[in-house]
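Appendix B, Record 12. Input sequence as logged:
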Amino acid sequence: MRMFPVLAVVAMGGCGGQFIIKAPDLVAPIGGHAAAVVQIQRTELAFLPLAVADATVCLQIGDSPLRAARSDKHGYIVATVPVPSQEGVYTMVIRHQNIDGEEASAGVPAYVWDPNGKIVAVEFDCLPEKGKDAEDARAALHRLAAGGRLLYLIAKDYVQSEPLHEFLETRGYPDGPILPWRPGGRFSKPVSPLPPLRETFPALGLGICHSQEAADAFLRAGMSCVLLGKTRAESPEVTIRLSWAELAAKGP
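Logged structural output:
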C-alpha cells in the first residue's frame, strides 16, 4: 500500500494530549466511493506526535452511509466511504472517541464528480502568485475550467489544505481538489494518484505543468500535457506553450 508522506491535517484536542487527524482532499464519482486514507496521532511529551493504534474512526460524506474503521499500528486507516449521488463539494467528517471519552474530529473536502466529465490536472507549484503572469494564468485556467474541472497536484509537503485553497481563492484561480504527489526525479521515486484516478475518470487526459518531471509523470499515466516555458517537445503528447499568456490565447 502506497502512502503519501504528509497529508492535509485538522486537529482537535483531548485532555493530557492532542489528537491530530490527517487526510488529503478526496475525489470520487457520483454514487460511488471515495478511497480515504486517514492517519491519527496524539501529541504527548514535548508535543511529539505518536501514532494511535487500534483507534476506531467514523467517516461520513454528506448524508451518505457512515463507515467505521480501525487504525493499524502506524495510526493509518484506509477505508472506502460512500459518496452522495449528486455532484458537489462535500465534507468528509472524521470522528474519533477513545475509551476515556476524549473526542477529536476533522473535516476534509470531498469533490464528487461525474465520472465521464472532462478533468484537467494542474501542477500546483507552477501557479504564479502575482503580476501579469498570474493574470494570464487565471485566464488560462478559467478557460480550461469552463470546459471541465481542475484538480491540482502538489509536491510540497503540507499540513493543512485550507491555506492552499485560500491561495486559489484569493488569487482568483478556479477551485479544485489538491492532491499530494511525487512526480519523481533524480533523487525520488514517483508516487502519484493519477493511475487510479484515470481508471475512475477516463476523461482525465490532460496535464498542465512547468517541470519536466511533472510532464514525465503525466505521460507515464497515459495523459498528454502542456509544458510551460520550454522551447522543444520531447514527445508528440507534449504541447509547448512558452508562457501562460500563450496558453490563455491558444489553449492547450
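The chain is about 20% helix and 40% strand.
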